[in-house]
From TrEMBL:
<keyword id="KW-0472">Membrane</keyword>
<feature type="transmembrane region" description="Helical">
    <location>
        <begin position="241"/>
        <end position="258"/>
    </location>
</feature>
<keyword id="KW-1133">Transmembrane helix</keyword>
<feature type="transmembrane region" description="Helical">
    <location>
        <begin position="147"/>
        <end position="165"/>
    </location>
</feature>
<feature type="transmembrane region" description="Helical">
    <location>
        <begin position="171"/>
        <end position="188"/>
    </location>
</feature>
<feature type="transmembrane region" description="Helical">
    <location>
        <begin position="12"/>
        <end position="30"/>
    </location>
</feature>
<dbReference type="GO" id="GO:0016747">
    <property type="term" value="F:acyltransferase activity, transferring groups other than amino-acyl groups"/>
</dbReference>
<feature type="transmembrane region" description="Helical">
    <location>
        <begin position="94"/>
        <end position="114"/>
    </location>
</feature>
<feature type="transmembrane region" description="Helical">
    <location>
        <begin position="326"/>
        <end position="352"/>
    </location>
</feature>
<dbReference type="Pfam" id="PF01757">
    <property type="entry name" value="Acyl_transf_3"/>
</dbReference>
<feature type="transmembrane region" description="Helical">
    <location>
        <begin position="50"/>
        <end position="70"/>
    </location>
</feature>
<keyword id="KW-0812">Transmembrane</keyword>
<keyword id="KW-0808">Transferase</keyword>
<dbReference type="InterPro" id="IPR050879">
    <property type="entry name" value="Acyltransferase_3"/>
</dbReference>
<feature type="transmembrane region" description="Helical">
    <location>
        <begin position="264"/>
        <end position="283"/>
    </location>
</feature>
<feature type="domain" description="Acyltransferase 3">
    <location>
        <begin position="9"/>
        <end position="344"/>
    </location>
</feature>
<keyword id="KW-0012">Acyltransferase</keyword>
Amino acid sequence: MSKKAKNGRVEFLRFIFALGILFFHIHKRFAVDGNISIGIKGIYLFNHGYIGVEFFFLVSGYLLAASAYAKSNMPCQYIGTETAKMMWKKIKNVFPYHLFAIILTVIVNGYFLHNTAKGRIAYAIDSWASLFFVQIFGFDSSWVNKLTWYLDVWLVVTFMFWYFLRKHYDVFVKIVCPLIALFVLGYMSHEYHSLAGIDGWTGHFYKCFLRGLGEMALGCSAYSITRQLNKINFTVAGKRILAVLELACYLLVLRYAVTGVDPKYSFVTLFIMCVGLILTFSDVNPCHRVFDKPVFGWCGKMSLLIYLNQFYSIRLIQSLLPAASFPVKVVLCTLTTFVGALVCDKVVAFFIKTKPFTKLMIEGEGE
């Protein structure tokens, strides 16, 4: 069976939301006295751009449920082994990119945040929990590249959900996941009044774990809804109406991302985003084939690299050019992040192709 091509619109949206997250962090780092307007009244440089991470989690939950459903006819008596192999594959795929970014982040942060070699070495050693995706559990370690929290939560929730998706798919996706999403997100709304924030300690784990748990559960439910939607034979007019609705959903999300609206509306924005994602994956939009081109697949790949390589880029510009104007800092941070992302892609591709460490450690790999 041939591998199904990726949804070009989803990949393009990943890229757009990754840029939104980048601009959010630039804005957060340099907007010392509040929101920085881009010249239009009430419009700021993605001061709520963190909402892009919610898109990543929704897509992750959706694809996780889709993967489990594709295996629904396969035996699962060795579910433990299957889960371990799946998790190892996911970690192996993402770890090289994560390692590249975290090494540069440790070097840049260590150099600019500490004045002594001892302090820099201690900083590097204290990054161990971030390196191995276990920071969210509360280990006393420097959260060097805080952006890795997404990977931490994604891996943990995937590990937790896979058994239930494989053993009890129908009940889990149609009953348990909607309840998890409602209870977890409702709790966050009541206690924190916003989806934003990652390092608030709940007493058992960081707040960001709840964020990913509820949103990936919502993404799993979105897959089930999409399957039902795809069974409906819409008219041309019906498809056009749904296409307009899809666009409206993302425009509303964008409006939230660039305005100073109360963060409590991040929850309703999340549900609006989920509706848009269901329509995007359903391909009811008559224009969906426009996005079935390799360039949009490349955009999807770049989204992760932009996400991982932005913190050290922003630190570099902040430390080297503190007197530069905000627009100049935005441009330079963006360019540095893109350069870092492209270099990361090339370096990781080289090591994947040549496998120098594997050949060094395992006999026969060089033949």
